[in-house]
Design a protein that fits this description.
The N and C termini lie far apart (40 Å). The longest helix has 21 residues, at 6-26. This protein has a single domain (6-74), classed as Serine Threonine Protein Phosphatase 5, Tetratricopeptide repeat (Alpha Horseshoe). By secondary structure, the protein is mainly α. The chain has helices at 6-26, 30-43, 48-60, 64-74.
Length: 75
């Protein structure tokens, strides 16, 4: 039996942060969702879905300035 690779561990953690963010978003706890998506982005900065979800959280909080800067990273 082999141990999970570092990338597998990062992916599992990223997936967990995303799932937690999704759960908070559905519950309209947008600040907590934003935080979880930010944690996931630290581990996987190339995942456009995480940036989009974080932007949606910011928009839901009516945080318009950070959203405009987030899309630069996705493009």
């Amino acid at each position: 039996m082999t141990e999970p690779s570092v990338s597998d561990t990062y992916q599992a953690t990223t997936d967990r942060f995303k799932a937690e963010g999704d759960s908070f978003f559905v519950q309209k706890q947008f600040k907590k969702a934003y935080s979880k998506y930010s944690e996931a982005i630290k581990l996987d900065g190339s995942n456009a879905i995480l940036y989009a979800n974080r932007a949606a959280s910011a928009l839901s909080m009516k945080e318009y300035v950070p959203v405009s800067t987030m899309y630069v990273h996705v493009l």
